[in-house]
Design goal:
Helix content of chain A: 55-70%
CATH class of the largest domain in chain B: Alpha Beta
Order of helices and strands of chain A: HHEHEHEHEHHHHHHHHH
Order of helices and strands of chain B: EEEHEEHEHHHEHEHEEHEHEEHEH
Shape of chain B: globular
Helix content of chain B: 25-40%
Distance between the termini of chain B: 32 Å
Strand content of chain B: 25-35%
Strand content of chain A: 5-15%
Structural class of chain B: alpha/beta
Number of domains of chain B: 2
Radius of gyration of chain A: 29 Å
CATH architecture of the largest domain in chain B: 3-Layer(aba) Sandwich
Number of domains of chain A: 2
Structural class of chain A: alpha/beta
Largest sheet of chain A: 4 strands, mixed
Oligomer: heterodimer
Number of strands of chain B: 14
Number of strands of chain A: 4
Shape of chain A: elongated
Number of helices of chain B: 11
Chain lengths: ~375, ~300
Amino acid sequence: MKGFLIKEFRHIFRDFRLMLILFGMPVVQVLLFGFAITNDIKNAPIAILDNSKDYLTQKITDKILSSDYFILKKNLNTNNEIGDYFKDGSVKEVIIFGNNFAENFLKNKNANIQIITDASEPNTARLLIVYTNSIINDFQQKQLSSSLEINNFVSSGKLLKPVILTTEFKMLYNPELKSVFMFVPGIIAILLMLICAMMTSMSIAKEKELGTMEILLVSPLKPVQIIAGKVLPYVLLSFINIITILLISYFVFKMPVQGSVFLLLSESILFIIMSLSLGIFISTVSNTQQTAMFISFIGLLLPTILLSGFVFPIENMPLILQYLSNIMPSKWFIIIIKSIMLKGVGINYIWKETLIIIFMTAFFIVLSVKKFKIRLE
Amino acid sequence: MFSIKTKNISKAYKDVKALKNINLNVKEGEIFGLIGPDGAGKTTLFRILTTLILPDKGRAFVKGYDVVKKYKKIRKIVGYMPGKFSLYQDLSVEENLNFFASIFNTTVSENYETIKDIYSQLEPFKKRLAGRLSGGMKQKLALSCALVHKPEILFLDEPTTGVDAVSRKEFWDILNKIKNTGISIFVSTPYMEEAGLCDRVAFIQKGEILTVDTPKNIKSNFHDTLAAVKADNMYKLITDLRALKAVQAVFRFGKSIHLSFDINVINPDEILSYLKSKEHNNISIKKIDPNMEDCFMKLMKD
């Protein structure tokens, strides 16, 4: 058994490309998803056309620009300029304040702000409007409540209190709506799936391809020993990977782990074992590395990305795909890590998902041990 | 006791019959050669005997153990070298050997005596990766790996295929040394000239055993007269010889044509004059002793 493990580690460490995939990919993926592929608004270039130039518009402008979301590209003077800036793409949004803004706001309680966005990128445009709107609303609330206080104090209840209906938002768990918080759990799931299932299935298929499996079979080694020898190195390497990903997401993207790290790692090991047993199962049905890779890729990776809720929200899928997503182990795992990392919940909240993964693991282990042949063919 | 015994072993892949009623008895401590062309069923028989596949019909015993029921016992006592040299290309010579020793719960130093003769030739290269070895060295390493646990019987499936002539010669010398330590050897080869180096051989063709005997007996059972015939136009020579009566077999063997015929019906002089009448030039007819290939060709025809 020891000899087998040493041999497996040598295979891995001597394969430069494999090492690159094993240790390079997690880092690259987390950084890629974290930095490049992001839905967040940061430093969006905007222009402002201020027709009033009074203290209130100045205050709102300051407030908007003091957030990290926007950066002022240009102060406009006439409406005609707006089109030009949108056309050359130098601004994503223009905010226009109406005439006599402060006066209208205080006297008539009816001042106008117009927001124009470049909707050739619909998602960004929608987010810009939401962000701008919420900043302006926030400002309005504060203005009204402070003016009410003054009024109340002066006229001691003689004035009729204006009724204001407001909706208050509170973003739980990810108040800044960072998309990296959404991606990290997904990446962990995908990478574990990929490394564990693909690598083990390929390494077993490689033995078949080279003919060394024949010699292993014609030896006193038991199937369990062969499987364990193949699997254990990857358990260790995947575990190192999880820790790398968590460290990067903590230090680079400030993603917290609210819940217990121990629970998070234990759930990860469970998922690793589940992916490995899936890999062994794949290897029992494929005789070449190519087949193994193909099955892992088409059969595991794509569904994991598409159906686990990592990229597309499951609630928006057609009903049949929603049902299908239930058999994706990664769907449950993503729920688990999100709950632990962001909500900080304990096992009592995620026991159901954990149990599902345990069942899936048992299912694949039994299936692959049954399918693992003590003979060729 | 026989080291290998098979009774009516049959095996089919879909509609191809790979083996038909194979009956073999291999004695203790002999080199037994399984000789036949590619696709004759050699590897299938090897895989059945090494417990890698199940026969459809019949029974087989290795060292007295049933290959189906007692496969675990057999796997402990056989050394198996599959058709292609199955080594880990990314491990060094030494690492390969250590690994194969470890899966049999032994060490290289424990059985060093068994592999000393072969491994001593490899030792200068022990740090080299197996993938960078020459064909002959790969073959020696694969044999060392199959021997490292001191098996009671060795299965070598086409060990000399793809190896140069010098290495092949060396390899057979090694096999004889191994045999002298008491290990039975079951070896297959497509090369007829290697058949003469075995203690006994079985000719196999299309899944059937044609004959089992010592090389000497097989040659002495060749009753026809054999001659090597040469002429300028070899192609025409073959067609003309085939047209002759009393000719048993005509086939090309290297630079000449081997012709077996019944000397009671026709003699070499008559053949010569016949060929002259067919306008052949530079004719030479030489009586020769049959080699293994001649015997095999004859057996195939019968």
